[in-house]
Amino acid sequence: MADILVVDDERAIRSYLKGVLTAEGFTVRTARGGDEALEAFREHRPDLVLLDVMMPKRNGFSVCAEIRTIDSLTPVIFLTAKVGEADQVRGFGLGADDYLSKTTSEAELVARVRRAVDRSCAYNSAMRDVRQLKLGNVVVDFDAQTVVGGGVKVRLTKTEADLLWLFAIERGRLVSYDEMVDVLKAGGFDGDSAALYAYVSRLKKKLGNGGNLIHAERGVGYMLMR
Question: Are 223 and 167 in contact (CB under 8 A)?
């Protein structure tokens, strides 16, 4: 079952949320504040973060922004008494997936959490299931990390294969630099957008005419065209 990280400075609320979510079959860990939450997030990546906004020392907005520098995919839901439109806009701008009031019913809370987790799991499952990709006159085999077609056979590096895998899963949608970095971090990548540009340039050359399907939006990211 999914692992949920609950972050709130009030002990009673942490206990209440842990009880509600545990009863629904989730594994729940808790953190009392922003720094503790980030430490817990780094030590063991959760499937979803349920995050309060108004906390001392480090508020939820700061925590969400830091999480998004580490991981652009794990769902983050704000659950807070601070529900003004400006705060919601700010939260979504920082990469939150949902924004709920602490007066939200248990049934709706569980439903929102389950929906976010299911979406994330479906995405990860889809990524695992992609094994081959046809682009132009070449076929990419992700298991073998090869590009075959047009009379040639070229081997991709793991980084190149991981990038193309991400583009394939998100085909037709612009993939941001942050998302690319998040996928590559598992392989030890710690470069910047210039390094990503170099990787994508080499990848496009190896794909031959298939590489023309990878379009760049300067300063934002890349899209694999349909």
Answer: yes
Block residue for tokens 């108004």: 54
Using alpha carbons, select from 185, 186, 189 the residue that is nearest to residue 198. 189
The rounded Cα 9 to chain-centroid distance in angstroms is: 25
What does the pLDDT profile of the chain (226 residues) look like in tens digits? 789 999 999 999 999 999 999 999 999 999 999 999 999 998 888 989 999 999 988 999 999 998 888 777 788 999 988 777 787 888 888 888 888 999 999 999 999 999 888 877 766 666 556 678 888 889 998 888 899 987 778 999 888 888 998 898 888 888 888 888 877 776 667 777 788 889 999 999 999 888 999 999 888 899 999 8
Continuous H helices in the chain: 11-23, 34-43, 60-70, 85-93, 106-129, 158-169, 177-184, 193-206
Look at strands 98-101 and 76-80 and give their pairing.
parallel
Domains of the chain: 3-127 (3.40.50.2300), 131-224 (1.10.10.10)
Which has the closest alpha carbon to 110: 10, 31, 4, 32? 4
DSSP H or E run through 9? none
Backbone dihedral angles phi then psi of residue 95, each to the nearest 5 degrees:
110, 15
